[in-house]
Amino acid sequence: MKKRIIALVFCxxxxxxxxxxxxxxxxxxxxxxxxxxxxxxxVDEVTLGKNxxxxxxxxxxxxxxxxxxxxxxxxxxxxIYVRDYEFAKQGEFSAEQVEQLRKYYETTExxxxxxDHDSKTGESADIMIKMVNGKSDGLFILxxxxxxxxxxxxxGPVNMEQLGQLKNLALLGALNGAKAAPSGNGKH
Amino acid sequence: xxxxxxxxFEQELRQAFERWPAPPGLKRKLMERRHxxxxxxxxxxxxxxxxxxxxxxxVAAVLTFYGSHERQQEKERREGExxxxxxxxxxxxxxxxxDHMNQQLAAHNRANHESSQE
Lengths: 188, 118
Prior knowledge:
The structure holds 2 protein chains of 2 kinds. By secondary structure, chain A is of the alpha+beta class. Chain A has one domain (27-177). Chain A has 7 helices and 6 strands, in the order H-H-E-H-H-E-H-E-E-E-E-H-H. Chain A has a 6-stranded antiparallel beta sheet with strand order 1-2-6-5-4-3. Chain A is globular, with a radius of gyration of 19 Å. Chain B is mostly helical. Chain B has 3 helices and no strands. Chain B is rod-shaped and about 165 Å long. Chain B starts with a helix and ends with a helix. The A-B interface holds A 44, 46, 48, 52-53, 55-56, 58-60, 70, 73-74, 80, 82, 84, 114, 116, 118, 123, 125, 127, 141, 143, 145, 150, 152, 154, 163-164, 166-167, 169, 171-172, 175-176, 179, 183-185 and B 76-77, 79-101, 104-105, 108.
């Protein structure tokens, strides 16, 4: 009986640790994101772990070409963390808040490949990649526009060529058209 | 000669008690009947009620199983579709960010090019 209890405790602990290990990959939101979300007129939040990506992938197994392309793109990824804050007017976020965001995500394992800041307009673009054994194992984008901040964090082997072809996906075009409509993730 | 009523009764009694040989095959028929399972009416109350309850329970169990199975499938389908939509939203934002970044870099390149020509 005692052995069974020990085995049960061991199994539950292992499962909990496995679960944590899987979600630990995706970062927690930066504290400044709460402030940004509070002032934003529209917020899109997507957090997908490996399991959810697998589920989404399973639902893209139709004959649709776009679905097949998207599936190829997300297969093998460990997680996707995306935040998009849209603001009704300019000046609703400060350069300090953007800097706080950048510092939060800029850790030693990420190498910057693009860093473009326009002091006149306040627009900026940062791209960092995570290299593991000489291969890209993650992509981070921080895109700041006068009325929009986008954070994209993709964990896992990222195929840059496929990412470059994103705009060719008709499905995304359709989503852009329907962007004004309320979505489950958005704050309106 | 006419028999007396008592004699007639005796005669009948004697005939009734007289031993007759069993017809051929009687023993075999009896043995066969003994080994044959008894045919009972299908509508024997306790058995029928028990069967009815069992069948009802089975039907209820099957319906419950299929009901929960379908609900589970529907839940999984909804979750899958939701995950798919979230992936598309993430890719849309990624595409937009990359697009904006390209425009910004192209604008800077143009500006640098123009200033170098001047």
